[in-house]
Amino acid sequence: MNHPGTQTPEPVAIVIIGATGDLSQRLLFPALYRLFSEGAIAGSLAIVGMSRRGMTHEQFRTFVREGVQRDVAIDAASWGRFAERLFYVSADSMKEADYAHLARTLADVEPRFGTGGNRLFYLAAPPSTYESILTNLGRSELIRYGSRQLWTRVIIEKPFGRDEATARRLNVLVDRVIGEEFVYRIDHYLGKETVQNMLVLRFANTVFEPIWNRRYVDHVQISFVEDIGVGGRGRFYEEVGVVRDVIQNHVLQLLAIIAMEPPAVFDAEEFRNEKAKVLRAIPPVQPVAAVRGQYAPDLVGGQRVPGYREEEGVEPQSPTPTYAAMRLQIENWRWADVPFYLRAGKRLARKDTEVVVVFRQPPLRLFRDYDIAGMDHNVLVLKTTDDERIALRFGARVPGHKHEIRSVTLDFSYRDFGEPEHPAYEHLLLDVMRGVQTSFPRRDEVELQWAIVDPLLMYWAGHPPDDFPNYPAGSMGPKEADDLLRREGRQWRTD
Ligand code: BG6
Questions:
Q1: Which end of the chain is more exposed for a tag (fewer CB within 10 A), N or C?
Q2: What is the purpose of this protein (predicted)?
Q3: 247 in ligand 1 pocket by Cβ < 6 Å?
Q4: Annotated binding residue 52
């Protein structure tokens, strides 16, 4: 079957706006180089980087190479072929007049590399610039609106807007300038193997789906725990904070996929319809069911790490949260009364992003003569961190004469397949080039995600914290986040 998700992409000229930023250097160029060197994308390719910084094409190639070689072994011959397709335009994306320079470069490289006129714009610039960039792209006629023979697609990074109102405004602009069919709102979590596998796990197996509901599930935890601080991204982080950076997008998308109903067919519209439906069933988070935090300096591994307020680009009295935990409800037949606990934070004890489904305890009176102290709920853990894995905890009788039941773990790692690993950005860039929108949130999803967190963000903005910083770097966040679960007789999992 010639599935659209397996076709070789058509020739294209890719324009990266914000080409000298961290995201481009660290993630986008390495992904593009790997796709190119593996032959996954056509040789008829040109890549134009655009940024304000003054640079020659040669300097830009060196800059890209520095990023690529950090995590890919470069092969001289493919690098040579890739590098000759790289071009640079020094321009201010906020100024309409500067786009003439980009248009000239495209007019020069498109026929040279046989890209056929298809264009892909990647907005890898700060979120506050998206409106101007879209407006300028539209006005400078670089986007061929509504054309299917000769397509123009646009990728927009997260966060998409600052709240529901700004997201709606941006969506209206997207509609006018590009059209929903050609926009790709990227959320790189949807390109991770574990996330791509969630529907397979739930709906291509017999054993999970029948128990995936309020009758068997006690609660669900989604943790987005990171050990890194904000590093060189202080200015960006001051604009967003933890909720806009990862909860409104990555975490709520994970939740939607974990909680959605099965689509009738697996295509972009049906999949996104089901996610939107579950997001619509979630009432806004209540401030009383949420906790915020900010990291203080501390010793981590014997070394002092700075507090958030000491990071470059951060205000000395900043109220920006670097940690948040909250409790959500999904008010539908499958999930009513099952709490979903979410937490995300920087500078915590470890890096761990995972979904944990905790099942109800069975009646255990039958085993009243057993030692069950080491026995826990059945738990299914889906880890989306680097070593992506799935683990199932269940009780087993300890061998020997004692009567004891202990929890044991069945563990599966994606590495067991022995296949080469492809970072999320590779999957997603390939999808865009193939015109497959399945892994890209639709307009309504993004707006619904804002509607869930907006009242909390407004409440927090109106009530600045008086206890920041309130958790030490290297810890697991503020104590109040533990209390949030403890008062309901639960605790954050540490599996
Ligand atoms: C990004 C956030 O979207 O995701 C970062 O902006 C975060 O703050 C990153 O560190 C985490 O992604 P990953 O793939 O490293 O888990």
A1: N
A2: Catalyzes the oxidation of glucose 6-phosphate to 6-phosphogluconolactone.
A3: no
A4: yes
